[in-house]
Design brief:
This protein has 602 residues and is of the alpha+beta class. The protein has 21 helices and 16 strands. The longest helix is centred in the first third of the chain and has 29 residues, at 12-40.
């Protein structure tokens, strides 16, 4: 007697059939709630210092890394002809020390002493001179910064993360019910796998919620996609559920480690060259030791485990490629990064992993533009890439075959178009609500759980759920774009932007490749594709997105002052209406003569 019959009796199959129509609706509500919360909430205002200018004008410094100059787009505008558009940058470290760096040809002075190439330390009440304009630097204490914050309430109530987590658990129960009903190979192992998944996610939520954290939307979206991947694993290889849950536990652990690690930017920068070396080393080892599968040498066999090192190189690439503000304006840093990127893409091309090489290249374009602000750099990179692609197509004929098949898969349904034809047929047979988890036939196709996973999702869980999976990654991308202007450091902004760019390119190649809208390149769907290397890498990269989250008490990847850590006394100091929301009313002074209470510079 199976588990469903034991619990529900003869009503079990009927409940499973009903759940097919409820499942996509629950998925839609989960994604919609996360999107509403991420895009609706405002950010915790952070003002760290001021430039006190003549005429009682205060210029607020609202980031740890601030560009000073005449341009309207800079963080601290000093409107004077003697000041360059981007004249200098002020950088604060985790211990509260500020350093100024000269960016252009104009001179910058601290207390009359010129700023050298290595920068100069700036302390409270120091005179900072840009061109012919002298300002007094005012470094705010935690108490003075707290006095600047005035909160107001937003209309409506907050989207409570606990309710969304509960809906995610319902989604998991419905998937498990379908698996146990439709999949004859599913059993106690699959049930234990989903049970452990739910236990881990609630443990994570309870621990962080107790510590005052309120922002869980990026994790919930990643858990939603990971749950879908768990269901695909149960359909394709139920015997691997134990291994998949172990990999999921490892992924959560690495995610927490990465969040804690990037809290200290000085530590991040100290080991960046080790990350450069590790990335090149992993790709070189793969080129030598990997066995060839499907035309690419990307996998290394270690006992019963198959490892794809290029997935971990994605993490190292972003980690090493993002930069703090003081490094963005040094040409040799950009040149070194371009050389590093060329080496990575070149090694991937030699391995025959064209899809991953394309993902790396697009990520390189995003990072290089954000580091240089130069379209010319991007144009030259694209031109070089076109020549590289032409060379790869001549030495890797199987890639040329994929391009030749593109748009003509129905003319070759038993050879080069075999996978796409069956993926499209399976997705169409699923309709809006799907055939039921574990009730599909596409799982019998090679790479169904990885490269063709979108077809499996649409067949078993329906087109609505498939689009929700795509929408989850779109939501993360929109969230990062919304956060970019509020990021504390350019490192977090660049790393988060590179992460969502990489994920969006992957999902585009995966979905459009399976549907024959783009050439089939064989890349994974982030979080949802079954595979340990991909799952671990995606959760590690999620830490970069958390580092860009500047909402109040939303991210433990960003080190908060004790005043705003969510500990005792916060609710008393900043009363709300019971929904836990606090918002800034824009009071910063902003050049109109206002200054924080008890202003010292006056």
């Amino acid at each position: 007697m199976d588990i469903v019959t034991l619990i529900f009796g003869k009503a079990g199959p009927l409940l499973a059939d009903i759940s097919r129509y409820i499942l996509p609706l629950v998925a839609l509500v989960i994604v919609a709630r996360c999107v509403r919360s991420m895009l609706r909430e405002r950010y915790e205002p952070e003002t760290w210092a001021y430039l006190y200018m003549t005429g009682n004008v205060m210029v607020p410094l609202r980031h740890w890394e601030c560009i000073l100059g005449r341009a309207r787009s800079v963080d601290g505008q000093v409107d004077d002809p003697s000041v360059e558009k981007m004249h200098a940058c002020l950088i604060r470290n985790a211990t509260g020390d500020w350093t100024v760096y000269n960016l252009g040809k104009g001179e910058t002075y601290v207390n009359g002493e010129p700023v050298q190439a290595g920068g100069a330390l700036v302390r409270d009440a120091d005179v900072l001179t840009l061109g012919q304009v002298s300002t007094r630097f005012v470094d705010l204490t935690e108490e003075e910064r707290a006095s600047l914050l005035k909160y107001r309430h937003a209309p409506g109530r907050r989207v409570r993360p606990g309710v969304t987590m509960l809906l995610l658990t319902v989604f998991q129960i419905l998937l498990l019910l379908q698996q146990l009903t439709y999949n004859p190979d599913a059993g106690l192992g699959v049930a234990m796998g989903f049970g452990i998944l739910a236990t881990v996610q609630w443990s994570y939520f309870i621990v962080l919620r107790a510590s005052g954290q309120t922002g869980f939307e990026p994790e919930i979206l990643a858990l939603f996609l990971s749950t879908v991947g768990m269901s695909v694993c149960a359909s394709k290889t139920p015997d691997d559920m134990f291994k998949q849950i172990i990999l999921f536990l490892a992924a959560i652990g690495l995610f927490v480690f990465m969040c804690l690690w990037i809290r200290d930017l000085r530590r991040v920068q100290r080991v960046r060259f080790y990350a450069f070396a590790a990335a090149i080393g992993l790709l070189a080892v793969t080129l030598v030791l990997a066995s060839e599968r499907y035309g690419a040498k990307s996998w290394i066999q270690v006992g019963s485990l198959t490892i794809q090192p290029s997935e971990f190189v994605k993490v190292l690439y972003i980690y090493a490629g993002a930069a703090t503000l003081d490094r963005l304006f040094v040409n040799r840093n950009l040149i070194f990064y371009i050389g590093f990127s060329a080496a990575c893409v070149g090694l991937l091309a030699l391995m025959g992993d064209f899809g991953t090489a394309l993902v790396f290249f697009v990520t390189f374009l995003v990072i290089s533009y954000m580091r240089s602000g130069s379209f010319a750099t991007v144009f030259l990179a694209v031109a070089g890439a076109v020549l590289g692609v032409m060379l790869v197509l001549t030495v890797k004929p199987y890639i040329m075959d994929r391009f030749a098949t593109w748009g003509h898969v129905w003319e070759d349904v038993y050879d080069n178009g075999y996978q796409q034809v069956r993926s499209m047929s399976a997705a169409a047979s699923g309709g809006l609500f799907g055939q039921g988890a574990g009730n599909g036939w596409l799982i019998d196709i090679v790479a169904a759980e990885t490269d063709m996973v979108f077809g499996v999702i649409c067949e078993e869980m329906g087109l609505v759920t498939g689009l929700c999976c795509v929408g989850s990654l779109l939501a993360l991308a929109g969230f990062v774009v919304k956060n970019a202007s509020s990021g504390r450091s350019s490192y977090f902004v660049i790393a988060a932007s590179a992460t969502v760019s990489m994920m969006m390119v992957q999902v585009m190649l995966n979905v459009f490749g399976a549907m024959d809208i783009l050439p089939f390149t064989g890349v994974t769907f982030p979080f949802a594709s079954v595979g340990g290397s991909s799952l671990l890498a995606c959760w590690m990269m999620l830490a970069f997105i958390k580092g860009c989250d500047m909402r109040a008490n939303a991210s433990f990847a960003v080190k908060r002052p004790e005043k705003f850590s969510g500990g005792a006394g916060v609710d008393d100091a900043y009363p709300d209406d019971g929904d836990g929301e606090y918002y800034d009313d824009g009071y910063y002074g902003g050049g109109d003569g206002d200054y924080p209470q008890g202003g010292r510079a006056s």
